[in-house]
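Hello support,

Our group uses your service weekly, and this is the first time we've seen a run hang past the timeout. The protein is DUF423 domain-containing protein. I'm not sure whether the cause is the sequence or the server load. Input pasted verbatim:
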Amino acid sequence: MFKVESIIFLAALNMLIAVGAGAFGAHGLKSVLSADMLAIWQTAVQYQMVHALGLLGLSLLQAQWNERLLRYAAWTMLSGIFIFSGSLYALALSGLRILGAITPVGGVAFLLSWAMLAWCAYRRQH
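Update from on-call engineer: The timeout came from a worker crash unrelated to the input. Re-ran successfully.
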């Protein structure tokens, strides 16, 4: 699975991509995309950024707790970023509305990853 250093690397890489995508959307795509598509692009950026920070948090907790479930949560969160934000980036650039049907799969991955973190914390309390 992932080592802590790998999760940190992937979190930082996703933040790098999200910041770049945000700047690209604000400056490079502003005159190219419609307001609706630009809003979709910004949603992709926002969710990628938030979940990249989530990955970073998971790596810090993994370093302390050494829980296998946290590694699964990181993998699931990374998958969510790829599916959720990736499908929205592709939708915004292509205009193919069918890509929006993939996005909820990424949202479910986000929910599962946060649920795994909650379960780990709950188990550690009891």
